[in-house]
Amino acid sequence: MSIRFTTKAHRGMVALTVAAGLALGVAGCGSGGDDNDKPETSASATTERGSDPSAQEGQSDEPLAELKGSDGLLLQITSAQRDSGGFVTVNGSLKNDGDKSMSVPSALSGNETEITRNGRSFGGATLVDSKSKKRYYVLRDTDGRPLTTTGFSTLKAGETLAVFMQFPAPPTDTSEVTFQLPTFAAATIQISG
């Protein structure tokens, strides 16, 4: 028997699988508190939050970094939180600061076949720890899907998309890393927690 899914149903299942995997992974690590909610609420790339500052609870109004990309894209990083399970979750928002709708560059997904076959994502993001001379790539689930916001393709003029990316955590004595994403300027960010 063959089962076929529509693109919309497949994306929904992917988002549900990633959210469930994150919830199980975080619950299995013994982590508690508000951190459990951040990746799950950000996992759906189709949810539009606009520029609502309450989207990142407990965060100051000032972003950790603001990166400019191609064609008027603007990425604001609002938090980089270390959890007890050995992960760092980077939260932020991607905004089309231009005056017309645009297709989000596929380069944000990176160039690894395993990630790109799963559609648009922030799979090309990395954290660079210059102190330890290491680069950390976005985590993947057991099916090779990146633990980032996925499933987006276009942003209307002025539209904002809440985003997240999860990485392995650098050593606990490292609190500053460089965030890199294809087509965007790099920025130094502080890890909290």
Describe this structure in words.
This is Secreted protein. It comes from Streptomyces caeruleatus. Residues 31-64 are annotated as: Disordered. The longest helix has 22 residues, at 7-28. The termini are far apart. The chain has a four-stranded antiparallel beta sheet. A four-stranded antiparallel beta sheet has the order 6-5-9-10, with no helix packed on it. The chain has a domain at 65-190: Immunoglobulin-like. It is an alpha+beta fold. The protein has helices spanning 7-28, 37-42, 113-116; strands spanning 65-68, 73-82, 87-96, 102-103, 126-129, 134-137, 154-155, 160-168, 176-180, 187-190. Mean pLDDT is 77; it is low at 1-59.
Low-confidence stretches: 1-59
| Assembly state | single chain
Structural class: alpha+beta
Distance between the amino and carboxyl termini: 49 Å
Broad CATH class of the domain at 65-190: Mainly Beta
Q: Roughly what is the average pLDDT, rounded to an integer?
A: 77
Secondary-structure element series: HHEEEEHEEEEEE
Radius of gyration based on Cα positions:
16 Å
Gross CATH architecture of the domain at 65-190: Sandwich
| CATH fold-level label of the domain at 65-190 | Immunoglobulin-like
